[in-house]
């Protein structure tokens, strides 16, 4: 055995990487316990990359990006096994008395939460304890904040008062847009392009460039209430999800520069099957969900008329929100009892399910996740699922 280990360690590094690429995570873990030299070598990210690509949630996306480069891949593979098996602890980070429609965003170790007409920024503690005093509070709306987005340079919010407020994150500059005639239900921003959707049955394209700040480039009549918008990573197009109360497709793609319809996705449509959330994974891949209880996966290279995959909510509940990790995992929030579900794109059925509300029924209005936690905003509670497990928790 010792001679075999000595021969293994004498291989060139490229050859050793190739040999170890054939091992699964359990075998790699056992190999790391053989001797100190192998322990040190198997801590390298390159050793775990092949295994990590097959994991449910390791942070490696299909296009090749690494979402969490600051965390060793070995640690992420261990935590991903907890995601896949549903091993987590649940906690209520915040509670409030009035029923709200909160929205959340994550940025590194910060969590942004809308509560009524304010947005509050909290520092996330590594010990998973409850949140206390916010680090910052952003106000300006006369009615509740419906949605908001955090970019590298701006925090942009859409409100029930019809206003859009863009706050520069590193200066006192604040720009208010007279956004729509009625509440602005949804907002997205990418680069210098911003798109909003409203109950007034329009979507609008705005610019954040300094030369045209606050200028509306296009007003698009959707002829139906707009519940969700998403800008393509290519910036050339965006998608609107509408209520499907009229004879128009609820999921439509528009040209950003010209403001014209490119295509509609799917069909035929059941009246009332509105699209509540939509997100791009790449310029040609996107996910949608809504009142018809399905998550749909669209590949624009294949067809705009039929999705390439779909998953049905097992309890026939509307799906309020979803998020993808750009690889194998989708998380969705249902309309009853705070049910969060994890889906593996490689399987037809739900992988794991968590009920976050027991005494009263509440939709999951918004959810976000990082490498080790999932955060869900309910009507009166901000919940967190911690997937690190006892070993990972003590080691951080």
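^ Assign residues to that structure.
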């Amino acid at each position: 055995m010792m001679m075999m280990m000595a021969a293994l360690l004498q291989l060139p590094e490229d050859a050793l990487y190739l040999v170890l690429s054939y091992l699964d995570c359990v075998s790699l873990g056992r190999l790391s316990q053989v001797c100190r030299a192998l322990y040190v070598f198997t801590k390298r990210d390159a050793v775990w990359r092949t295994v990590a690509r097959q994991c449910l949630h390791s942070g490696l996306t299909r296009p090749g990006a690494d979402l969490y480069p600051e965390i060793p891949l070995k640690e992420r593979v261990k935590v991903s096994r907890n995601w896949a098996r549903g091993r987590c602890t649940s906690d209520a980070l915040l509670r409030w008395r009035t029923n709200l429609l909160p929205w959340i965003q994550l940025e590194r170790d910060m969590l942004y939460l809308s509560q009524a007409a304010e947005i509050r920024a909290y520092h996330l503690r590594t010990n998973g304890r409850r949140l206390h005093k916010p680090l910052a509070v952003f106000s300006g709306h006369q009615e509740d904040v419906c949605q908001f987005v955090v970019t590298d340079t701006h925090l942009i919010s859409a409100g029930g008062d019809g206003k859009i407020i863009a706050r520069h994150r590193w200066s006192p500059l604040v720009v208010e847009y007279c956004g729509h005639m009625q509440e602005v239900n949804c907002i997205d921003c990418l680069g210098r392009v911003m798109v909003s959707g409203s109950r007034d049955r329009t979507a609008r394209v705005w610019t954040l460039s300094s030369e045209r700040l606050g200028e509306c480039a296009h007003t698009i009549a959707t002829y139906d209430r707009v519940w969700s918008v998403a800008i393509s990573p290519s910036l050339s197009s965006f998608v609107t999800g509408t209520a499907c109360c009229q004879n128009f497709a609820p999921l439509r793609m528009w040209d950003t520069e010209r403001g014209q319809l490119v295509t509609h996705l799917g069909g035929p449509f059941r009246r009332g099957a509105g699209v509540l959330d939509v997100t791009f994974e790449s310029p040609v891949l996107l996910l949608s969900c809504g009142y018809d209880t399905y998550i749909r996966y669209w590949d624009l290279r294949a067809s705009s008329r039929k999705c390439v995959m779909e998953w049905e909510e097992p309890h026939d509940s509307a799906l309020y929100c979803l998020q993808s990790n750009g690889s194998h995992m989708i998380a969705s929030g249902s309309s009853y009892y705070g049910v969060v579900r994890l889906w593996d794109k490689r399987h037809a059925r739900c992988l794991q399910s968590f009920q976050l509300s027991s005494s009263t029924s509440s939709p999951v209005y918004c959810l976000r996740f990082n490498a080790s936690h999932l955060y869900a905003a309910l009507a009166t509670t901000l919940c967190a699922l911690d997937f690190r497990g006892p070993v990972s928790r003590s080691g951080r």
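The longest helix spans residues 73-85.
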